[in-house]
Amino acid sequence: MTTTPARARTDVPPTLRAATGLAEGTIRRLGLGLTVGTLAWAASIFAFSTVNEGVPERIGDLTGLAFQLGVFCLLAVQFRTRATGPSTVLLKVEAVILGIASVWSLLHGVLPSNLQDAAWLIPMDICWPLSMLGMMVIAIKIAVAGRWRGALRWWPLVAESWAIITVPCAVLIGDSVARWVGGFHLLIGYATLGALLALRPHLVQPQD
After folding, report:
1. How far apart are CA 97 and CA 114, in angstroms?
2. pLDDT at 208
3. Alpha-carbon distances of 80 from 17, 22, 140, 147, 185, rounded to whole Å
4. Distances from the Cα of 123 to the Cα of 128, 141, 171, angstroms
5. Within a domain: 148
6. Range(s) of the domain holding residue 39
7. pLDDT averaged over the chain?
8. Domain count, the chain
């Protein structure tokens, strides 16, 4: 028997040791947050499409905000698990862009009609597609880094193919079909991604 205290491990970077503190229960809740937010926006798309006016447009904005808050849940898991690797710069930049896009969704959903298309809102509106582009880059980095395992290593790529599939469909076929393609893709992509996080949180926790 010895009284010498155990030495701390020095072979694991501090950032990675800190990342292991995200409990499975927290990952499950954040995953459910992503799924719920996605379901809200998908329901709006099924009901009203993505191009409309008046009350349906406002519902689309606010359910889009619910989706964006769900994506923040996803970002939280990605950040705490260092899903893209040791550096978190990309995740932080994405959080800022997504935050601006979320403010736009809120303002566009509640402001009077004469202010919805104000010039000062346009730069914020641009952050919506930019935030999705950023999530695509993050999805690619997750796949390359390989810190997430199993289906969760690849499912972010499935989720982020939404624009690649839905936008051409809208241009070539029309919104009447694209609304269903876009809505179902959200269910297959982001909603399923959230469910996978809730059901298999151990696949995103850093391995010792």
Report:
1. 25
2. 58
3. 10, 7, 18, 12, 27
4. 10, 27, 24
5. yes
6. 22-200
7. 88
8. 1
